[in-house]
């Protein structure tokens, strides 16, 4: 017994059934000679009925999931609403088991225990490894912070990204000032918080709301194929696809094509034939852009171009070198087009990265062909975006794309699409980063007021510890596979084009109790937040971030309703309202002044 998704086209379902029937018929037909010695009992001694073989064959053509409500009921290509309809009516047993494995920490007054209790019953998590406060209060701890730039943790971030120093010098103090101004202009009174807490802190999550924060299995190749008809056109809505990816991510085998849709390289309404033509045009245009610097000797002689090339090569030589793809191969010859370095060959061990072989003395001599291809992509991007050029941190964004596509032109266009939303992170004056930090500051004030007050006492309301996380979308905070999962979820813009700020909020929310109870100074907060790197549970934070967004949305609705009822002008700042939009925020770099370098 199975429930077919109502959104699938009837014609496609019939086509699938017909195709499966023919293939199953062929499979069982080939076994007919064995029927002469057929054993009616299976390997486990039980009566053989053929259903298991049928289900295994069916899984090659469709997504098959057994329902929790009734073991004999299977769902074919289920949607979220199918899973809800066939979900068990009681979660008591699940709740008892889940609470034995881990216990989420208490959060502020906005999160009633009832909500998190329900969340535990529907989200499947591994045991939570709690972040412990490391010996941050030592016998010879430094005196209270007066000059942030001199602190080791600040220098640690500044040494990784030059933009962090620009941000500190130009914007950090202003972020605090604007946050204080926002607090005066848009802060809610105790009565309003009481109203919000009364409405949102005690009610039980509905099945629909629970389904939205339930993590699902990643989209498999089989399931992805069911999203398209025989011509390669999408046969369900774009929102349905994005919702599915948002709540489960993608299996690695699907990313090579799915990312091109998510990033906008391929239109969602295109056919397979149209995408092939588009790919051909992408290759042609990439080669044209690349020729602009390869064939121009005068350009390559300019100081700006040489400076950009040096910066690119320096960063590429230290980007994700733990990945097998970026380790040196034996006897690899790479021709350095447009460089003073001649083609070279070197014997090297695949286990030995370049930086351990004194390559810092000749960083332009890139032997790994994949690193070399990334260099070509970034130099060509300079021709595509002449005002921005190369800025430190871009290699962090390019690397996962190249690893997945391993196609120079295709990776280039995926990168340009990604940079449309990320360019604001790299503009010279850091105003794009400042804008996001101000918005995040207001978001923390609005949703986690108790924590924000404590951060104020710790002189940490500038949220500088988030600079690296926002700059390269948590690339340095999670393991490789988790980063890929996180990015594809951000790319869906399922709730907001700035969902990364709610994910950042979730990190604070998850650690709120520890911060309030144990940390007292700026350097303690900064060290603790930096030490979270590689020690966070992605799935838990995704669930928390989604629930935080849903709550934020409802908080805004309550404020608007109460403002109208009271006939008072109770405001939610424009920056916070902007978080409800799914439209990508684009900020372009201004024209580069004469004599101004890059990076």
Automatic annotation (TrEMBL):
Region (Disordered): 336-361
Single annotated GO MF: GTPase activator activity
Keywords, comma-separated and alphabetical: GTPase activation
Any one Gene Ontology BP term: regulation of vacuole fusion, non-autophagic
One GO location term (cellular component): late endosome
Cross-referenced Pfam families: RabGAP-TBC
Positions of the Rab-GAP TBC domain: 249-494
Annotated Low complexity bias: 336-345
Name this polypeptide is given: GTPase-activating protein GYP7
């Amino acid at each position: 017994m199975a429930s077919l998704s109502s959104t699938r086209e009837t014609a496609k379902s019939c086509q699938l059934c017909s195709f499966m029937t023919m293939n199953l018929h062929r499979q069982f037909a080939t076994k007919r000679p064995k029927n002469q010695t057929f054993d009616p009992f299976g390997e486990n001694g039980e009566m053989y009925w053929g259903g298991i073989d049928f289900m295994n064959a069916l899984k090659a053509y469709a997504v098959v999931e057994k329902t929790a409500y009734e073991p004999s009921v299977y769902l074919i290509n289920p949607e979220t609403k199918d899973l809800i309809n066939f979900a068990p009516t009681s979660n008591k047993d699940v709740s008892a088991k889940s609470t034995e494995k881990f216990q989420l920490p208490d959060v502020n007054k906005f999160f009633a225990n009832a909500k998190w209790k329900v969340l535990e019953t529907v989200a499947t998590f591994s045991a939570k490894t709690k972040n412990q406060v490391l010996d941050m209060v030592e016998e010879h701890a430094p005196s209270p912070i007066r000059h942030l730039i001199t602190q080791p943790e600040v220098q640690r971030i500044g040494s990784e990204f030059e933009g962090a120093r620009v941000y500190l010098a130009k914007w950090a103090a202003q972020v605090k000032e604007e946050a204080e101004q926002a607090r005066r202009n848009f802060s809610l009174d105790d009565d309003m918080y009481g109203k919000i807490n009364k409405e949102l802190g005690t009610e039980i999550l509905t099945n629909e709301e629970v389904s939205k924060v339930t993590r699902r299995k990643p989209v498999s190749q089989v399931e992805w194929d069911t999203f398209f008809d025989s011509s390669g056109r999408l046969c369900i809505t774009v929102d349905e696809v994005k919702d599915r990816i948002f709540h489960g991510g993608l299996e690695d085998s699907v990313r090579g094509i799915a990312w091109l849709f998510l990033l906008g390289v391929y239109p969602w309404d295109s056919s397979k034939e149209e995408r092939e033509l588009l790919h051909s045009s992408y290759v042609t245009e990439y080669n044209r852009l690349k020729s602009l610097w390869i064939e121009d000797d005068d350009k390559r002689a300019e100081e700006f171009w040489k400076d950009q090339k040096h910066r690119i090569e320096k960063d590429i030589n230290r980007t994700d070198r733990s990945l097998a793809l970026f380790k040196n191969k034996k006897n690899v010859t790479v021709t350095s087009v447009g460089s003073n370095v001649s083609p070279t060959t070197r014997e090297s061990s695949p286990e030995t990265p370049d930086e351990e072989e004194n390559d810092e003395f000749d960083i332009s001599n890139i032997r790994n062909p994949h690193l070399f291809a990334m260099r070509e992509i970034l130099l060509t991007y300079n021709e595509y975006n002449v005002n921005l050029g190369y800025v430190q941190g871009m290699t962090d964004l390019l690397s996962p794309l190249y690893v997945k596509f391993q196609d120079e032109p295709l990776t280039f266009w995926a990168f340009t699409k990604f940079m449309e939303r990320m360019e604001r992170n790299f503009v010279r004056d850091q105003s794009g980063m400042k804008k996001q930090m101000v918005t995040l500051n207001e978001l923390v004030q609005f949703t986690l007021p108790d924590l924000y007050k404590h951060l104020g006492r710790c002189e940490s309301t500038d949220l500088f510890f988030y600079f690296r996380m926002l700059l390269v979308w948590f690339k340095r905070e999670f393991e490789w596979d988790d980063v890929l999962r996180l990015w594809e979820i951000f790319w869906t813009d399922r709730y907001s084009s700035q969902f990364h700020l709610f994910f950042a909020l979730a990190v604070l929310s998850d650690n709120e109790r520890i911060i309030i109870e144990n940390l007292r100074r700026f350097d303690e907060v900064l060290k603790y937040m930096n030490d979270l790197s590689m020690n966070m549970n992605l799935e838990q934070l995704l669930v928390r971030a989604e629930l935080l967004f849903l709550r934020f949305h409802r908080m805004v609705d309550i404020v608007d309703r109460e403002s109208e009822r009271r006939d008072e002008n109770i405001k939610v700042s424009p920056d916070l309202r902007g978080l409800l939009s799914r439209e990508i925020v684009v900020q372009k770099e201004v024209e580069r002044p004469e004599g101004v370098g890059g990076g």
